[in-house]
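Re: that backbone. Tokens:
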């Protein structure tokens, strides 16, 4: 096994940068660059020198984690150097000049940790999410997964399933003990029913985990000149989208990430909906419609100046949920007619109603992506639990467990295999590359 090395901190200027080295030559790297092997897991201050020229490069804190007590389970060395581009590049070059060391691939440290049993697959995914987390809800959920929450839930389900399967198999192995067999099968069936209820409850958690992870998708839609781009800029607090009095200014859908009370939102400004536009604008409108369909919530904007009608072209039924928002109310002054059709009335110019809109969005976020971290947070988890649910349903569909015991056992075994995929115990080769490819180098 080759030794791998990489800069683990983000590139650019920083007070400190960390280089990580993992594999059999990690100890060699420390000896050659710093002249010694420090006491395991104690930081030591040391001058790093190039292994061949012995020219000093930087003074660093060095750490030594002999196998198996390290992140990867291999010998690991960490160098905390000054965080400049030239320093980190020179130290990395020196490390790579040590025999047997090569640059790490993206996600390779974590992959080795997984292969050495330091992390299960759900924890690996949690780690990737933890690094990517932008909001508090994302961080909490990611940490719960990294920390073994999904593994613990999976382990619980697995233990009951193993138990039920053992009861079923016992009646196959000891077919003569009829009384015992009948009550064991009844027991097993009750356990499987209970298990299936739990699995179904997780599956019907309506994608909350994914919403926390990926952010709630809010589409800003409406006719041209309604003030969609102006609202996006106001909510983002910066000039993201071009605003102009010309109808049909926005063509490409523009995304802005927003953190409201710890919940992630992805706001999309879309092209104004209208008929008879030119081909480029029509493409923009097509994209707008697809964002409307994919959104968790649509803010449908209409200017207070325009007649309050929904764009006839727009099929409101395509959106999951719509809030009608009247815009540019500053143009109406105080004699603005009251109208309950609109959930919000705003002016991006005067700031009227913006705070209420934000508070309402934050409340929506808490309702749909708040609460405890979810167990299923990726499509992959959902597929695994769907397979498990299907296997359990099929076992319960067997009418006579005493007669078709072997078939029941087979279904339960299929369920176990599905569950094993959640934590990567079985049949994982296909998903490994997908999971690890989301990491960057040095993780
Ligand atoms: N008085 C007033 N003018 C506004 C307000 N919001 C937007 N406008 C003006 O309305 C015009 C259209 O605004 P945009 O934000 O570009 O409208 P849009 O809905 O993105 O339009 P398209 O991209 O063409 O679909 C611009 O001249 C804005 O300055 C507002 O709250 N008050
Ligand atoms: Mg626009």
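Recovered sequence:
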């Amino acid at each position: 096994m080759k030794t791998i090395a990489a800069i683990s901190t983000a590139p650019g200027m920083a007070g400190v940068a960390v280089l990580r080295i993992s594999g059999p030559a990690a100890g060699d790297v420390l000896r050659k660059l710093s002249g010694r092997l420090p006491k395991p897991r104690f930081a030591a201050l040391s001058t790093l020198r190039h292994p061949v020229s012995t020219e000093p490069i930087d003074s660093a804190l060095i750490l030594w984690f002999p196998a198996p007590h390290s992140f990867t389970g291999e010998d690991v060395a960490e160098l905390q150097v000054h965080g400049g581009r030239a320093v980190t590049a020179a130290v990395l070059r020196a490390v790579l000049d040590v025999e047997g060391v090569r640059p790490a691939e993206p996600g390779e440290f974590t992959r080795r940790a997984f292969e050495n049993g330091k992390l299960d697959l759900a924890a690996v995914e949690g780690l990737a999410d933890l690094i990517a987390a932008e909001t508090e809800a994302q961080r909490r959920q990611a940490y719960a997964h990294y920390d073994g929450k999904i593994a613990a839930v999976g382990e619980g389900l697995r233990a009951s399933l193993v138990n039920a399967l053992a009861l079923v198999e016992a009646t196959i192995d000891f077919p003569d003990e009829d009384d015992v067999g009948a009550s064991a099968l009844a027991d097993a069936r009750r356990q499987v029913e209970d298990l299936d209820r739990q699995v179904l409850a997780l599956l019907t958690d309506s994608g909350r985990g994914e919403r926390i992870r990926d952010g709630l998708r809010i589409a800003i839609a409406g006719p041209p000149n309604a003030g969609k781009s102006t609202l996006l800029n106001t909510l983002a607090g910066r000039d993201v989208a071009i605003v102009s009095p010309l109808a049909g200014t926005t063509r490409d859908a523009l995304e802005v990430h927003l953190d409201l009370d710890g919940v992630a939102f992805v706001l999309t400004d879309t092209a104004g909906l209208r008929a008879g536009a030119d081909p480029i604008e029509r493409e923009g409108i097509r994209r707008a419609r697809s964002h409307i369909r994919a959104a968790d919530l649509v803010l449908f904007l209409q200017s207070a100046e325009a007649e309050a009608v929904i764009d006839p072209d727009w099929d409101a039924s395509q959106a999951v949920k719509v809030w009608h928002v009247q815009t540019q109310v500053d143009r109406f002054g105080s004699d603005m007619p009251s109208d309950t059709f609109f959930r919000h009335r705003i002016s991006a110019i005067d700031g009227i109603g913006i705070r209420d809109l934000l508070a309402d969005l934050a409340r929506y976020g808490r309702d749909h992506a708040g609460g405890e971290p979810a167990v299923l947070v990726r499509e992959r988890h959902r597929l695994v639990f769907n397979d498990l649910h299907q296997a359990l349903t099929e076992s319960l569909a067997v009418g006579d467990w005493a007669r078709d015991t072997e078939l029941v056992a087979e279904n339960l075994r299929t369920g176990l295999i599905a569950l094993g995929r959640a934590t990567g115990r079985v049949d994982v080769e296909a998903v490994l590359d997908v999971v690890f490819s989301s990491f960057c180098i040095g993780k």
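The chain has a mean pLDDT of 88. The chain has three domains: 3-104, 124-205+377-436, 213-369.
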